[in-house]
């Protein structure tokens, strides 16, 4: 009977060691993926912010320019006022980029929260397994 208990406990310890090793491998893979996602989201936010700066500068300068400045005795009616684009139409490109920028910020925050939660679960599992 004692031999059976020893065999069962040895098997349980082996199973637990295997589960801990698998959990460690999965956690490392998940952590690497989360870190890459966070890095990508940060780079994307930077790129979108730069694009927004360029567009806002362009639209600010567009108000000063008149389209097709030509040497004519009199300019046609269409060129009387500067063309400022369709900036206000449903938010335009600038509005769309601002939404994209906030989406990347939310992705970064969500991924950081998921990473912290997964790390906590892993730590709890490892602590509980070592106690057993």
Q: What is this structure, in a nutshell?
A:
With 132 residues, the protein is mainly α.
Poorly predicted regions are none
Number of strands: 0
How would you classify the helix and strand content by structural class? mainly alpha
* Main beta sheet strand tally, sense and closure: none
The residue fraction in helices comes out at over 70%
Q: From the alpha-carbon coordinates, what is the Rg to the nearest angstrom?
A: 30 Å
| Principal-axes shape call | rod-shaped
- What is the terminal-to-terminal distance? 22 Å
Number of H- or I-type helical stretches: 2
Mean pLDDT: 84
- The string of secondary-structure elements, in order, is HH
Strand content: under 5%
Describe this structure in words.
By secondary structure, the protein is an all-alpha fold. It is built from 2 helices and no strands. The model has no long low-confidence stretch (mean pLDDT 84).
């Amino acid at each position: 009977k004692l031999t059976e208990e020893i065999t069962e406990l040895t098997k349980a310890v082996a199973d637990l060691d295997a589960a801990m090793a698998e959990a460690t491998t999965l956690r490392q893979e998940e952590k690497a993926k989360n870190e890459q996602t966070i890095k990508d989201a940060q780079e994307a936010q930077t790129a979108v912010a730069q694009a927004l700066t360029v567009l806002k500068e362009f639209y600010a300068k567009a108000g000063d320019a008149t389209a097709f400045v030509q040497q004519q005795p009199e300019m046609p009616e269409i060129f009387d006022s500067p063309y400022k684009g369709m900036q206000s139409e449903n938010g335009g490109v600038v509005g769309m980029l601002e939404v994209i920028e906030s989406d990347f910020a939310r992705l970064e925050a969500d991924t950081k929260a998921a990473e912290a939660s997964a790390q906590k679960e892993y730590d709890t599992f490892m602590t509980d397994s070592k106690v057993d």
